[in-house]
Amino acid sequence: MARNLIVGNWKMNRTASEAPSLVTRLLELVPAQLPVEVVLAPPFTSIPAVAQLLAAANHRLSLGAQNAFWEDRGAYTGEVSVPMLADLGCRYVILGHSERRHLLGEQDEAVNKKVKAVLRHGLFPILCVGETLAERQHGQTEAVIRRQLDAGLDGVAGQELKNLTIAYEPVWAIGTGQAASVEQAAEVHRQIRSVIGAIGGMAAGGAEALRILYGGSVTAHNIGDLLSSREIDGALVGGACLDPEVFAKIINIAAEKS
Ligand SMILES: O=C[C@H](O)COP(=O)(O)O
To answer: Does 135 contact ligand 1 (Cβ within 6 A)?
Structure first.
């Protein structure tokens, strides 16, 4: 498994008719074999179109989703289950994104059920955690991260943690153009590693293999510096992944750093 992981979270952007031009251009710009793992996470409606293009191009890019429900099937209007995503070829599922927590009221308990459902079906959850600006200013960053990890991973067995990726996304850095500094990100990544180490009952350093991504205003200009820190194992990219030229630059810089 490649150490670095770059995930493009399209959020609620691009229709299914618009998706192919973005992906086709990206595939032209990025080599088929990469020393870095790349995941495209389009909206649910574009997943089939993107899956088809990736399969036809025989490219090693993976597919991800931006959310999933915890039950497999049933009367849950508007929800999409993990088996439905697996059936479309999704490998990763982003969970607990701050936009879902803050704009849609998603609670830790729901995030936890989703993490467990994704693991149960053999897919890979990307659990997002991060503090607001007010929480950082009040010195609560570590406590917030610890709460989100403890609650989000409640009941997850130690051996399942190897399939988990964490994305540290300070809310104040998302879509603002003001990314966290490498030092700020690395400090929180160290805290995350220590919390996960404790949850997994690992000895000190045992959580070293855990992949922790940074997200929040990642660009082609700052990805190189971010990945120079050994604490940062990749990026969850929002706005910049919608421009194939920029996203390809990010991927190619990450490949050089791998
Ligand atoms: O999931 C991606 C993050 O929310 C970051 O978004 P951004 O790169 O537009 O700041």
So the answer is: no
Question: CB-based burial of residue 233 (10 Å sphere; 0-12 exposed, 13-18 middle, 19+ buried)?
Answer: buried
* Shortest-distance Cα residue to atom 2 of ligand 1: 238
User: What is the ipTM for the molecules in this complex?
Assistant: 0.99
pLDDT (tens digit per residue) in 129-172: 999 999 999 999 999 999 999 999 999 998 899 999 999 999 99
Q: Does the beta carbon of 9 sit less than 6 angstroms from any atom of ligand 1?
A: yes
- In sequence order, the 6+-apart residues with CB closer than 8 A to the CB of 140 are 131
Domain spans, the chain: 5-257
Closest ligand 1 atom to residue 217 Cα is: 10
Residue 214's φ and ψ, nearest 5 degrees, are: -105, 140
Question: Which residues does residue 64 pair with via DSSP β-bridges, in sequence order?
Answer: 92
CA distance 97 to 125: 11
Ligand 1 center–CA 203 separation, angstroms: 33
For the record, the structure tokens of 52 come out as: 């088809």
Class of domain 5-257: alpha beta
Beta bridge partners of 108: none
